[in-house]
Hints:
Organism (chain A): Gadus morhua (Atlantic cod)
Radius of gyration of chain A: 33 Å
Largest interface: A-B, 47 and 44 residues
Low-confidence stretches of chain B: none
Shape of chain A: elongated
Structural class of chain B: alpha/beta
GO cellular component, one term (chain A): GPI-anchor transamidase complex
Largest sheet of chain A: 11 strands, mixed
Low-confidence stretches of chain A: 1-20
Number of strands of chain B: 17
Shape of chain B: flat
Oligomer: heterodimer
Helix content of chain A: 10-25%
Protein name (chain A): Phosphatidylinositol glycan anchor biosynthesis, class T
Pathway (chain B): Glycolipid biosynthesis; glycosylphosphatidylinositol-anchor biosynthesis
Organism (chain B): Gadus morhua
Helix content of chain B: 40-55%
Amino acid sequence: MAIRRLKHTRTHAHACMLQTPLDDFQEELVIRPLHSGDIYASFQFRTVWDADFMGDQKVSHYRLFPKSLGQVITKFSVRELHISFTQGYWRTMQWGQPYLPSPPGAELWVWFQDTVTDVDGTWKELTNVLSGIFCASLNFIDSTNTVQPSASFKPLGIGNVTDHSFLRYATLPREIVCTENLTPWKKLLPCGSKAGLSVLLKSEKLFHSTFHSQAVHVRPVCQDPQCRTTSMELRQTLNVVFDLHTSGQGKREWSLFKMFSRTLTEACPLASSSKVYVDVTDNPQFELSPATPLLTQAVVLGDRRTYSVYDLTQQASFGSSRSLNMLLRWKAADGEMLRPLLHSERYVAGYGLQAGEIHTLIYNHHPYRAFPVLLLSAVPWYLRLYIHTLTVSSKGKDNRPSYIHYQPSKDRERPHLLEMLLQLPPNSVTEVTVEFERALLKWTEYTPDPNHGFYVGSSVISALVPSVVAMDTNSTLDRPLFSSFFPCKEEASYFMRVYTEPLLVNLPTPDFSMPYNVICLTCTVVAVGYGSLYNLLTRTFQVDEPSPGLAKRIANVIRRFRGVPLL
Amino acid sequence: MATAEVERKRGQLAALSIAVVVVLVGVPLWWRTTETYRAWLPVNQINELAELQLQLSVDVEVVFSRGTLMPEQQKKVPFTRTQEEAQKVDDDTTLRYRYESKYRTANIMEEDALKQPTAAEADLSLHTLSASPCGSVVVYVIPETSVLLPQGVDVYIGHRRTAVLRMGAPMSVGKNHKQLLAHLEPRITQVVQVMSFSHTDITAALSDRVRLSPGSKESLADSMRSFKSSPGYEITFSLLNPDPKSHRLDWDIEGAVHSYIQPLLTKLAPLANFSIDSQILYYAMLGVNPRFDSSLEAYTLNADSLAHVINPVEARLGSNAASSNPVLNFLLYVPDAHHSPLYIHDHQKQPVASNAFHSPRWGGIMVYNVNDLYGRGETPLPVNININMEKVMGVFLAQLRLMLGVQSSPAPPGFLVEPCGGAGLADWELDRLMWSRTVENVATATTTITSLAQLLDQIGNIVINDNIASQVSSTVTSLQLAVAELEAGNLGFALQYSKEAILASERAFFDPSLLHLLYFPDDQKFAIYIPLFLPMCVPILLSLIKIASEARQRRKLKQSKKD
């Protein structure tokens, strides 16, 4: 508490003689050189506001916290909101773990306050409003892609809510993320894109990358270790991976300018802390210039890493050129990456357009420890899962999940939800398979490009992974932002979330001129039947003299010529 | 031959019966299955409402104090009189004003109240005696010699719904009862027009349905300035800080809203719901670069360039995601050290005293110069600045009154109107606003509902579901009630019903289900029906033609046989 108090006095005493409520803004950039030669940059902007959003009093006077988001939280009684937009798939085996995982496309999960009576209605309205705020097609979230996970998505902020009827989770794997989503996201920052780290966020570079993910997380957090008062925390994160070959021209050399085509010249004047971290644990594989004397260690994802720190609030960081453009140059191209302990793959097997099988492979690379994971998969109703075919096996043996929560789908109403708790044996692959049958859609239910296939959102694997080093459990301590997102309850393990690939499934697709063809064909058949029937009913039948045959007539013509009597 | 004839008859009968089956069963079946669902709408009532005939009734109470009436006149009091005035605005809008005046003499307590030394005190004590209902007017007539009103003032209008009127000299009034009324009535009408409504206000409120004849530029600007009537408004105060490195701003917006804005809004609560919020925007620039005027040693913004100021700022303001009510924006711009002081100049190149301007139906912007707080260059940047909210809120409050349509139209000569006090709004000003808002709501709702009815009538493919039908009928009922309450003179209820009508009519008009238009172009319908209808109908038609021609031939044959 003393530390926290100290920080407040430090940041605010000189900033402005402010009364309550206090708000505080921090910005941070972490750069991690990846073993593949690519580079990973992760921005985090955190606004903490000691305002009580959950009380009766309406919060209406905003300073650093964005008004548009605050109004949404107040109006819809949101306790926690997590939204992410991602373009590209995070390659865990090449890149290691991201600081903040997110599935391809859009993901939204919200915990509502327990005062909300009509959760589904509020959720529907909320998604529509958020769709307007972020210029995204979140309005396509409806009951057919919303689930209520029972165990996988616990609140990340304070509050021990267990009633998952106030939780809604939805993904839109098809969502394409682009500039129009970045602009409103930047607008939520107090400094916009005018000063501080956010000047680097230029869309022409950010979207010329192999992986781009931007997210907004709103949650209540403790103000002090005793947690007597709460404040609202808004974290805006942006993760981007630049490719060695497309962005780096194949040279293992990265600089801020090469990545973002901008350099840093100042911190955001509203930020109480503004720092750039560069992961130098793997030094001396590469050299970093300008060198900084500040080094810090942080425990991230079960690993103690060393970071060089550039404090942008200090004028010395910018040097004589008044701009910071750090340069990373590799000396050697080799080096082994630590294998991530948890990793997963998913694919569709089978042939034909009727049945298929979903395979999920979960890898535990820990040499001697087994640990439990929660697997969540939400499958749209048009893939009819046969839950009796669910098999889980690891190392060739049957592995019975200790907890299964299955909610069957209803056609056109809700998706399948399958959640289970699995124990992963050490150094093993666990395979989860389930068979499904493809349903036939109505012709208006197909997407505009049905032959592209239908997406099935990523499965989510949440796990408490045993840690090699002791984790830091004090959440209120002044730590780098990237290491303090997931709350850590015990020292021996850390929380991790892994998203699998989304699936692309082909459904039986009709020829869409079919309705007209069917109409024409049916009408023709009906008309033919009707015509003959009509003919039979209305025609008058009478006995007629049989007319002479053709041969006879021709013979008669010839006979007439010859003057012989006719036949 | 006879069998052939029978066979031919049978064929004809079969063809005829098939034709009958097709007409009696096939056509209705086809009609019913391809019909779009259209719920019943009260079209007749809507058409009645399209011809708007509004009657506004005001209760006027005229109280004679001692010494104003001749003995002869006194005998006739109390009595009531009703005055009516009809105005035709356009072909289908007629307005009728009805003043129901009740004349009586003052009771002892009222006499005492009128003996107070000043008019303001008299106004207050008269108010405590009896609270007059919303929309009504009480006029106290005092003798010519009374010292209550200052010299040269004939009518005093206070904060409530009472006015004090000075009687003319006895000889000009005359002894007769009729003469008295002839003297008083025009003056009372004048008072009522100030305190409740005048014909110009009401026609301005009808601007949605009546195309106004181009009047004076001034009145047009007045009518365009205020926001359209709406059931709710969002008021947003934004503090624009163009350079947080140069100064850190602090404003006590909560306290300022509480002490300056909230009293007015509490007063206006019957009119609409208001919600207030505020934000601080950093690095928010104006759209134009102010010019440096070396003679003034200041930057100036010309009146011509003000139009370009708003657009770039507006992109940052952000719309209110949580409601769809109109937003009133009030921006406070504090120029940074290098661009201050900044003054707004009017068309005559003179600095504007308030250093603020407003944009009709959008909000207001004020420039707040703080350059004297910067010291002489020795204070390290950023400078902490505490904004004087009293100065700011004074300007914003005046702009808010304009935006909400609380007009203080110039009083006729001889009138003394008490300036509004702490509440920011007198009772009769509220009444005035309520009258015009009610009429505006009724006009808007009728326009909405008639255009919806017209649209639905014109496009036969729109599905009208039961929800829309119920919204339409509730609009119609509320409108009828509002019109009836206006006629009865119950202003409060009329406003309430008119608000309900406007809400229901908007809901019906903007219902998303109306968009699911079943649009099948006629040529495509034809293309789909042809494969079925052509092979079915051609034989039927041909055999019908054949039957008809045979019948005609037979008749001809009979004719010739007869001959």
